[in-house]
Design a protein that fits this description.
Layout lengths: L2 E3 L4 H9 L2 E6 L9 E6 L3 E5 L2 E7 L5 H9 L1 E7 L7 E11 L6 H5 L8 E15 L15 H21 L14
Antiparallel strand pairs: 1-8, 2-3, 2-6, 4-5, 5-8, 6-7, 7-8
Length: 182
């Protein structure tokens, strides 16, 4: 049932755009390092082209994804159908962290709804697109987005967010270099 594609076909682009959640997995090169898998949601992902996607990386208590990308770039994004026809889509690729001072950041940010917690954009050059059946993925009803992170970031404001990143986002759990722009 598995299919691979040279580029993201239009029907998969549209399907990805309708998903309410996706998962991001990265790993350090060290065999002793921790593999990371993070759920992402909200209006944070855009398909940029047939072989490129980008998502807003929001401020959080961890920095594993950014740390791993800065070390080796490897990433996979996974989307699962929780409603409708069963489907799983994986995008394997090489990612780049775009900090707010990167020349492409402001251009890409125009594609997104403004978010007070944005700390970077993760741009992925997709090397492999695949889908599979997803027959075992359960049906789940979407009750609505959570606004907890947005309210938290708004309450903190830019200055306190910078201080938070300095305290919480400098090193990964494996001691790798984390957020660089504080």
């Amino acid at each position: 049932m598995n299919k691979t594609y040279d580029i993201l076909p239009q029907e998969l682009r549209a399907w990805i755009g309708r998903q309410k959640v996706f998962f991001v997995a990265t790993a350090p090169l060290s065999a002793n390092g921790h593999v990371n898998c993070s759920p992402k949601g909200g209006d944070t992902l855009r398909v940029i082209g047939g072989r490129q996607v980008a998502y807003i990386d929001l401020t959080g208590s961890g920095i594993e994804t950014i740390s791993h990308i800065q070390e080796n770039g490897r990433i996979v994004l996974m989307f699962c159908a929780f409603e409708g026809t069963p489907k799983i889509v994986r995008l394997h690729g090489i990612a780049q962290v775009l900090y707010p001072d990167h020349c492409d950041y402001s251009v890409l940010m125009k594609e997104f709804t403004a978010n007070p917690g944005a700390r970077a954009i993760i741009r992925v050059d997709v090397a492999r697109v695949s889908d599979s059946c997803g027959y075992a993925v359960p049906f789940m009803d979407f009750a609505g987005p959570r606004d907890n992170l947005d309210r938290w970031a708004e309450k903190k404001g830019p200055g306190e967010l910078t201080a938070y990143r300095k305290r919480k986002n400098q090193l990964s759990i494996d001691g790798m270099k984390g957020y660089e722009k504080v």
